[in-house]
UniProtKB/TrEMBL annotation:
<keyword id="KW-0808">Transferase</keyword>
<dbReference type="InterPro" id="IPR029063">
    <property type="entry name" value="SAM-dependent_MTases_sf"/>
</dbReference>
<dbReference type="GO" id="GO:0032259">
    <property type="term" value="P:methylation"/>
</dbReference>
<keyword id="KW-0443">Lipid metabolism</keyword>
<keyword id="KW-0949">S-adenosyl-L-methionine</keyword>
<dbReference type="InterPro" id="IPR003333">
    <property type="entry name" value="CMAS"/>
</dbReference>
<dbReference type="Pfam" id="PF02353">
    <property type="entry name" value="CMAS"/>
</dbReference>
<dbReference type="GO" id="GO:0008168">
    <property type="term" value="F:methyltransferase activity"/>
</dbReference>
<dbReference type="GO" id="GO:0008610">
    <property type="term" value="P:lipid biosynthetic process"/>
</dbReference>
<comment type="similarity">
    <text>Belongs to the CFA/CMAS family.</text>
</comment>
<protein>
    <submittedName>
        <fullName>SAM-dependent methyltransferase</fullName>
    </submittedName>
</protein>
<keyword id="KW-0489">Methyltransferase</keyword>
<dbReference type="InterPro" id="IPR050723">
    <property type="entry name" value="CFA/CMAS"/>
</dbReference>
């Protein structure tokens, strides 16, 4: 036991912020004036910390085996300092590993399992999400076009950034796959005049968007369905398609089917934008040091991350041509810190919104506190990333319109994309 305590004391000296520990026997280790204090109920949690297994340490916090005091930015600095190395290092991409990964992915992403997993996360409590998201409840990476934007302004900038990339035009048929609480779908309808269709597997989100459609008088122009993307009818192709924060839930084994479905849903010459979280290194569908296991258990069951190169390969294999790819990784770090700060400032209210979960309410709150701050840290460090990938379905027409040789409506420059 003394060796473990000595190892911990050596660790504390190397951490970027002062940390104090309350040991199971009652003694205190570390400086008297500490930015972060961790209190341990049993020695196994202390051994987990010494091993740098911060995902398991996070689980101990959620399960109340460890108590924590301190600002979340300081806590995350400690977490990063405890890691023995990069959580994206040492990827294994051998044939047997790939077979096992594919089998696991197929098992985890049947239509029934996907619906269960989406509802596990998104149907926690609408009031809970409303506490720390922007007023439109846009639950994806914002776009800080100007550094001093508020979260709400940056989310509206993101919605417009997507609409401009897709070159939305009045009257076009627009599909939003995984439409969430309707932020993009309603923005595109009201600002660009599209005829919008949204789908989700979340019952709460579906009900919310239907109510918003009625409140805004958009019946007949916008429709929202509780529907799996695999079940979308293909008889009337869409002019433009967006998928925001959705392909992380598809699963690597289903990527060919996912992009094949998009190809069939998109009219020749149309545009599709995929916006989603990508792995920081090839071959990693989750972070190491127990971090991915924590997310799988408490936040996003069934979530898988692919490297942007893998996503683009699947896009190309489906017959879609990538015409623009943009990394928004730093934007997501800033977005997540904004969410984390908002939640930290309203913890008591957040607990009230989760009372429907009964005895699990405090666990859920502790898990989300670590998930938001830990994700912010992961994007800052570059362990995970975020990409917007714009693609077209070539139409084979080289001579129509002003873009001779384009095979799509995509222009030859980004002027329209970045104009205010």
């Amino acid at each position: 036991m003394q060796n473990l305590i000595q190892k911990i004391e050596n660790q504390l000296q190397r951490l970027p912020v002062p940390v104090a520990l309350q040991l199971p026997a009652g003694q205190r280790v570390g400086p008297s004036a500490a930015s972060v204090t961790l209190a341990f109920k049993d020695w196994s949690s202390l051994a987990t910390m010494a091993a740098g297994q911060i995902g398991r340490l996070a689980e101990d916090f959620v399960e109340a085996r460890v108590q924590m005091q301190g600002q979340m930015r300081d806590v995350m600095a400690v977490a990063a300092g405890l890691l023995p190395g990069s959580p994206t290092g040492g990827a294994s991409t051998g044939w047997w590993t790939n077979i096992l990964r594919r089998a696991r992915s197929l098992a985890a992403h049947s239509p029934h399992k996907d619906a269960e997993q989406i509802q596990f996360h998104y149907d926690v409590s609408d009031a809970f999400y409303a506490l720390w998201l922007d007023p439109r409840r846009v639950y994806s990476c914002a776009y800080y076009r100007d550094a001093d934007m508020t979260l709400a302004q940056a989310q509206e900038a993101k919605l417009d950034h997507i609409c401009k990339k897709l070159m939305l035009q009045r009257g076009e048929r627009f599909l939003d796959i995984g439409a969430g609480w309707g932020g993009l779908l309603l923005w595109a309808a009201e600002r660009y005049g599209v005829r919008g269709t949204g789908i989700t597997l979340s019952k709460n989100q579906h009900a919310h968007v239907l109510a918003e459609i009625a409140r805004r008088g958009l019946q007949g122009q916008v429709e929202m369905h509780l529907l799996d993307y695999r079940d979308l009818p293909e008889d009337q192709p869409f002019d433009k398609i967006a998928s925001v924060g959705m392909f992380e839930h598809v699963g690597s084994a289903n990527m060919p089917a996912y992009f094949g479905k998009i190809h069939r849903l998109l009219r020749p010459g149309g545009l599709v934008l995929n916006h989603g979280i990508t792995a920081g290194a090839p071959g990693h569908d989750q972070l190491g040091a127990g971090m991915g296991d924590f997310i799988e258990k408490y936040i996003f069951p069934g979530g898988e991350l692919l490297h942007v190169s893998q996503i683009l390969r699947e896009t190309a294999l489906a017959g879609l041509e990538m015409v623009d790819t943009e990394s928004l990784r730093p934007h997501y770090a800033k977005t997540l810190w904004a969410w984390s700060d908002a939640l930290e400032s309203r913890l008591d209210e957040a607990l009230v919104t989760l009372q429907g979960a009964g005895s699990e309410a405090e666990k859920i709150l502790r898990a989300y506190r670590l998930y938001l701050a830990g994700s912010a840290m992961s994007f800052e460090q570059g362990w995970i990333s975020l990409h917007q990938m714009l693609s077209t379905r070539p139409d084979g027409d080289l001579h129509s319109g002003s873009m001779v040789g384009a095979q799509s409506v995509y222009p030859f420059n980004r002027v329209g994309m970045y104009s205010n």
